[in-house]
Structures are given as structure tokens and as C-alpha cells.
Amino acid sequence: MYRKSPVTLGLLSCYNVYAVCRQILLFALGISLYFVVLLLLFQLLKTMGEKKRKSKSDSHRVTFADESEKTNQNHSSKTMHPSMFRQRADSPEEGAGMPFLRTPHKNHDPYIKVGDTLPPIILYEKCAPPIPINIKDLFQNTRLGILFGLPGAFTPVCSTNHLPGFVKDYDKFKHRGVDVIACVTVNDPYVSTAWGYYQNATNKVKILADVLCEFTRSIGMDTNMYAQLGGIRCKRFAMILENGVIKYLTVEDNPQKTSCTMAGHVLEALDNRYHDARNDNPLSAWYFHRRSLNLPPFN
Predict the structure, then answer these.
(1) Model-level pTM?
(2) Out of 158, 183, 213, 234, which one is annotated catalytic?
């Protein structure tokens, strides 16, 4: 039998080792290429998904903006006071003319004034279910009415000074011929109703909830109270209306304090407005005016 030489055996052994190493390297290279391809595919799918989500969010944002603009236009055409869209050249504000996006007005710059009528906006009284009240119709159908606004229900100053004064002096207002006393607050009707029960204002003062702050913004009484109450609230104001027309209007400098909008000051304004009639002077023009409205004389 032919016997291989040691050199031949050594060469064969080296070739076998080379072949095994080559197979191992090729297997490792194949595995590496496989994972590289998977990684590239994963990165490509991830990039495509991000682009798709971004384009979808952009289109949704544009659609939402269009819908918001249409909603604001619908609200403004149906329920908002025309003076809301008055552009102020001296202090242009971001979002002017858009009632739900613009910033609050400056102090001492209300849109509404003496001689104006209230905008026909729906407020809500009571709950279970809330009763819609057209604020313009409420006072237009009354001879003499009082409307006052405050920042919010269950707040300290409103609960201890402002609303209790009108509840306490309800009989005095009625004696002076006031048919309706209403309070506007930027709250939901459930909170405002509970506050009215807590303050014993039922059948005395109408607590009207301005849920979306529409009425407050439309008359220019909105104020920034994010730090105190977490949002836009109503300034502290009081007005006297005759047949829906504003005859007297006063606004507090600081909504966290009460002075000129208290019930006593409103009573004093009523007395001053009908000063001669309070003395039952037959020659007084206000005397005949009160008689024409069938209002009772003062004591």
C-alpha cells in the first residue's frame, strides 16, 4: 500500500484547517450581512413612519385651525356683539377679532358703555338641566334691572362681600322699582347654582353662568386671572339698565377688591339718578319719568 510522505500529510492537514476556517469566515460574513440588511430595513421603515406621522399631524393641525376659524366666525355672526371685532390701532393684540383666542382687554377699556344694549348671548341659570337665558331679552323686557359681574363663584371676596350685599339689600332694590337683579360669573351652571343656594340667593338674584366666557368677552370685561383662578375671568362691574339700555356702569380697578360695585354704591347711584323723584317733587322730570314707568316713589 502506498504510504503518504510526512510532507504530503502536513500539506493536507493545512488545507483542511484552511477549508474549515474559510467556512467559518463565510458563515460569519453571511450572518453579518444578514443583520446589516435587517438594520437598514428597520431604519428605513422607521424613517418612513416618522414622515407619515409628521405629514398626518400637519394636515390635522391645518384642519383643526380651519375648523376653529369657522367656529369662531359662526359664533361671531350669531351671538357675538359687533364691538368685539373692533380693531384697536393703539394696542394691537394677537388674535384680535377672534373671541376665543385673543388676549384680555386692558383695564378701563371696556367695549360696552352707557347708552348701549347688551349683546344677545345665551347664559345659563340653575341646573338639571341648565336653563338657557338670553341676557338681552332678560333686561329688554324689564323696566329697571341691575346686572353685576364678578370673577367667580366661591371665591373669597365674591362670597363674603359682593353677592351677599345684593342678597341682603334685595328688598331695598325692589322698593326702588328694580325688577331683575342678575349676577354673571365665568363658571359652569352647576357650580354657579350651588353657589346661589349656598348664598341664599334663590328667587332674589339670578346667578347666570357664562360657561364659555362669551358674554364677558363680548362686552370687554374679560381679565387675565391665570395666577389666581387659572384662566380668563370677569372683571368686577355693576350696571343699571332701563328697558335694556345701560344707564349706569362702573368697573373696579382691581377685581380682587370691592368698592364702587357694591350693593350700597348701586343703591346710591339709583338714588342720585332719581334724586328729585325721591323727594316726590311734582315739577321733577324724573318724577314724571318714574310715574310713566309705574315705579313706586321713594321713602
Answers:
(1) 0.58
(2) 158
